[in-house]
Amino acid sequence: MEIQGIGIGQGVAVGRILRMPDPQPEPADRLSLRQPAEESVRAAQALSAVAAELGVRGQAAGGAAQDVLEAQAMMAEDPALVADITARLSRGKTAERATFEAFAAFRDTLHGLGGYMAERAADLDDLSQRVIAHLAGAAPSGVPESREPFILVARDLAPADTVLLNLDLVLGLITSSGGPTSHTAILAREKSLVAIVGAAGATSLVDGDEVILDAARSVVVTTPSDEAKSAALTRIAERAARAAAPVGPGLLSDGTHIPLLANLGNADGAAKAAALGAEGVGLFRTEFLFLDATSAPSVGAQQVEYERMLREFAGKKVVVRALDAGADKPLAFLNDADEENPALGMRGLRSLRAAEGILRDQLTALANADAATDADLWVMAPMVATVEETRYFVDLAHSLGLKTAGIMVEIPAVALLADRVLACADFASIGTNDLTQYTLAADRMLGSVASYQDPWHPAVLRLVGATGAAGAALGKPIGVCGEAAADPLLAVVLVGLGATSLSMSASALADVRSSLAGYSLEQARQLAAIALAADGAASARAATAAAASTF
Ligand code: PEP
Ligand code: MG
């Protein structure tokens, strides 16, 4: 039997599963037999014990994990939350029930905010569980102990669990909830963990079941045959060999150079990306500087961060994206309007233009950082819909001293007018995540329409092809920086459609490098034509794979 989910990366794992223990049941809503003051002491002790435990685990983990765990520990002692628990206790509730209700209310508020904030809601569920387990004197549900390697199955993972995974023992991860942009998926990509998220059918798996976790095909194969297992083990060995191969530039078999670049969310990942062979940065997402802030950081503070990253890539190309706030990345100081369809609202360049001071400051900080370092800095604007917006951004960036300015192709309108857009931009970079969302009219954050979020769809590929053709005609570089570039076979098709560079999570570089080496530019074009001729995403993928296997 096969269980469908959303594969993260290209890995394969074979092993027996262990489930994360089920969460504590919801505490009964009954009046406490204790006095409110006594319950209040119990709740306070449990909250501070959980905060202290997270702090200790954070210190043991160090690095980024420590930041995640300390942020969670702070949430446990948030004054607004404690006040809410106290108010509920004064109405006679038990500490367990009051904690449960207060965390649930806090979580619903975050959910209501949508996007990035909603993704943090899982952290609150985890905290609530830990506090209730502490009150019950039970062990918190967490990663099971094992001496043998195993595939972990969980509803979802909280940051506290993910950062402490022992990657020598955890062969892979299957979650029954969560989507491709959830915290778990992001961490799985970062740690190169073989993972499938959103596999609702995984709830039927029991401890000890043997499975093949095939992230490349987005399926979990249960009770696999011996043939299927040995084929999977061969793929695992081949992938390990690719990862161990010496890193070098992205080259097609005929020697055509397709630079392979890294997508980075902050400067911390730069050294690892360079070690994995990134020839530069194709997408530096700058949101991290803004998302937790209550006002925009100063030019000086931004400049420090940009310089830190540019120094890691001296002499290499680094494409920085201007702040892309709104929709899945809400930012109150830029846009606090209550929008019914935020993905179609004031996001990306639209909101930056409405607060031009913030855009000018960011471009000034980038120009200063460029002047102080030796990288080849390019800047681009997200969510551009018109030729006029392109001209606005490119002219502003040039006037502030930035040499190379372009736009992201994320909205079908600019792909359809790529010739006119590229006439006034230095380059374009195709964001296939948003381009797919807008072409298929399917919210990329919504699990119920996740199956539409497939960049193999020929309509998306046709838009990529139109952009590639315009780039070739005008001699302008066309990058691809959405998740599509990390799919080894699709990467070949994208090159065949005219992409001149590909940018992806650093963990995908080895697979894509190896795949490109298997095809000439002419063959990539033939595969692109086959994918374009299909009726839908699945048939495009299947027809291309069948043709590729004959080359
Ligand atoms: C994209 O939309 O493809 C992209 C790279 O940007 P983000 O995923 O950050 O929206
Ligand atoms: Mg985007």
Automatic annotation (TrEMBL):
Residue ranges of every copy of the PEP-utilising enzyme mobile domain listed in the record: 148-217
GO MF annotation: an example: kinase activity
Obligatory cofactor(s): Mg(2+)
Catalytic activity line of the entry: L-histidyl-[protein] + phosphoenolpyruvate = N(pros)-phospho-L-histidyl-[protein] + pyruvate
Residues the record lists as binding Mg(2+): E410, D434
Domain of life, per lineage: Bacteria
Domain PEP-utilising enzyme C-terminal: 249-517
Position of the signal peptide: none
Assigned keywords, A-Z: Cytoplasm, Kinase, Magnesium, Metal-binding, Phosphotransferase system, Sugar transport, Transferase, Transport
Broad EC category: transferase
InterPro entries in the record: PEP-util_enz_mobile_dom, PEP-utilizing_PTS_enzyme, PEP_util_AS, PEP_util_C, Phosphohistidine_dom_sf, PTS_EI, PTS_EI-like, PTS_EIN
GO biological process: phosphoenolpyruvate-dependent sugar phosphotransferase system
GO cellular component: cytoplasm
Entry keyword annotation includes Transferase: yes
Binding, phosphoenolpyruvate: R285, R321, N433, D434, R444
Family from the record: Belongs to the PEP-utilizing enzyme family.
NCBIfam families hit by this protein: PTS_I_fam
Function: General (non sugar-specific) component of the phosphoenolpyruvate-dependent sugar phosphotransferase system (sugar PTS). This major carbohydrate active-transport system catalyzes the phosphorylation of incoming sugar substrates concomitantly with their translocation across the cell membrane. Enzyme I transfers the phosphoryl group from phosphoenolpyruvate (PEP) to the phosphoryl carrier protein (HPr).
Protein name: Phosphoenolpyruvate-protein phosphotransferase
